[in-house]
Amino acid sequence: MSDRSLSHKLFTAAKEVIPGGVNSPVRAFRNVDGEPFFVSRARGSRIWDVDGNEYIDYVGTWGPAILGHAPAVVLDALHQAAKAGVSFGIPNPQEVEMARLIVDWVPSVEKVRMVNSGTEATMTAIRLARGYTGRDKIVKFAGCYHGHVDSLLVAAGSGALTHGRPDSAGVPGAFADETIVLPYNDPEAVERAFAAEGETIAAIILEPYPANAGLVFPRPGYLEFLREITRKHGALLIFDEVMTGFRVAKGGVQSLTGVTPDLTALGKVIGGGLPVGAFGGRADIMDHLAPDGPVYQAGTLSGNPLALAAGLAQLREMEKQDGWSRLEKIGAAFEHGVRDALDRAGRPATFHRVGSMFCLYFSDRPMWNVDDVKQCDFDAFRRFFWSALDRGVYFAPSQYEAGFISLAHSEEDIARTAEVTAAALLDLA
Ligand code: HOZ
Is the pTM of this model over 0.90? Predict the structure, then answer.
């Protein structure tokens, strides 16, 4: 086992002054019965801990690092931007450039507003949907995670699910009552909800490819069905593309599937590693926002010049390098390696991938929603996770999280990962 004694010391000190020792629960490694390592630096496909251990990283700061860690273009853009000032609190030209880029790239977005996180993006999208429709209820799907928004922390995925708290304490019952939770990939459940309460439903919000219960895909026709039923009942369709936006394709899942929502929440890749989110959609809906309309939303640091410089540099570089096609090739090689490792270990498993996002489920059953994911062999996952980490490969520390590949992952990284995966799977026998 690798020596992580300095990380252990830091974690002990952290727990005295930070709840649980972490600033976000997904980092706690509790579900894999361990402690997190503390990072000293990250570059390209690699991350190093304070004890000097080196890992090939497939978490990528939970999605943003699509070019790899600390890419030169982002560092240069940050240096340049910082020279002009780090925050203005008044419009700056990069805001127009970023808004134009999003409108040009994301099929359904006609107007967009910048915020500081994915949580802010989804929180405001549902407020806007309520303000626009004059209705209160929101439909969400079990296992989808939309950040730590009060009324969406019901049957939530990601860390909430990992730590056994899909329904957060501190959310007033009255808020939770406005959220209708349905199983993902079950059209009849949606039909029943609209038949019973259609006139009160402001919106359906979903991750079109749910990536906070591993990585689940919609059944054929499911997204189209959601588009149709929301339209029929005067409700809005909100895609949470915080994880998939600019990741699975230049224009997100909506550009892959052709299903266009009314509103879209974005985050992660768009910030180049800095705290950025955005939400946008139909102009007639977005115009309900203050100062033009009655729905209030604001932010001192929204459109921050450093954050936008980093995000724009990353997105432009992806475009310049035809990053999404290249990621598909790297992802295909990665998938080939993992499937080969599974064969060599004689272990049937379900593996999902789209471009540079993936999940290896420790189950051979099909995965259509969070109830399927809950049937996985969590003990095998835990043992696999540590075995891979000790061999220098860092996968997300929860069966409920997706993995991320970057443009910095080399052929050697992928080959090494396949070897490690095979060895870690054989360890399970
Ligand atoms: N949304 C991230 C992936 N599920 C987790 C980030 C966090 O909660 O810190």
Answer: yes
Considering the domain 72-320 in this protein, what is its CATH number?
A: 3.40.640.10
In the chain, what are the domain boundaries?
Answer: 5-70+323-427, 72-320
* pLDDT-derived band at 1, boundaries 50, 70, 90: confident
Question: SS3 letters for the chain?
Answer: CCCCHHHHHHHHHHHHHCHHHCCCHHHCCHHHCCCCCCEEEEEECEEEECCCCEEEECCHHHCCCCCCECCHHHHHHHHHHHHCCCCCCCCCHHHHHHHHHHHHHCCCCCEEEEECCHHHHHHHHHHHHHHHHCCCEEEEECCCCCCCCHHHCCCCCHHHHHCCCCCCCCCCHHHHCCEEEECCCCHHHHHHHHHHHHHHEEEEEECCCCCCCCCCCCCCCHHHHHHHHHHHCCCEEEEECCCCECCCECCHHHHHHCCCCCEEEECHHHHCCCCCEEEEECHHHHCCECCCCCECCCCCCCCCHHHHHHHHHHHHHHHHCCHHHHHHHHHHHHHHHHHHHHHHHCCCCEEEEECCEEEEECCCCCCCCHHHHCCCCHHHHHHHHHHHHHCCEECCCCCCCCEECCCCCCHHHHHHHHHHHHHHHHHCC
Q: In the structure, which protein residues have their CB atom closer than 6 angstroms to any atom of ligand 1?
A: 24, 26, 62, 145, 158-159, 212, 401
Q: Quick: pLDDT tens for 362-408.
A: 999 999 999 999 999 999 999 999 999 999 999 999 999 999 999 99
Q: What is the CATH number of domain 5-70+323-427?
A: 3.90.1150.10
Mutate to test the pocket of ligand 1, among 158, 244, 270, 404 (most ligand atoms within 8 A of CB): 158
Catalytic, 240? Answer: yes
